[in-house]
Write a structure and sequence with these properties.
- It is built from 4 helices and 3 strands, in the order E-H-H-E-E-H-H.
- A hairpin with a 2-residue loop joins strand 2 and strand 3.
- The chain is an alpha+beta fold.
- The termini are far apart.
Length: 87
């Protein structure tokens, strides 16, 4: 269940919100005038999410390459690896 706090709570209870974010590695959603405004999370959680997004993008790029015929034969891969190691 998401944790939702008012913007005033972020200002008044920063330490508590920070501790929650670090302990549970979950974002806290901040509202302003009753509407969703921010998602606050620890740096560690942010880096994990960013890394996952980057990985998903690389996987999608690979899938797109396969769909567009951008594949190499086993021999081409081995040749490229040998060339890279020779440098």
């Amino acid at each position: 269940m998401p944790v939702i706090k008012k913007s005033a709570e972020l200002r008044n209870n920063y330490g508590e919100i920070s501790a929650f974010c670090h302990k549970y590695r979950e974002p806290v959603f901040i509202t302003k005038n009753g509407e969703g405004d921010l998602a606050v999370m620890s740096i560690e959680t942010y880096e994990t999410l960013s890394g996952k997004n980057e990985l998903y993008q690389l996987i999608q790029d690979g899938i797109d390459d396969i769909k567009n015929g951008g594949t190499l034969t086993k021999e081409e891969i081995i040749k490229n690896m040998d060339n890279a190691l020779a440098k």
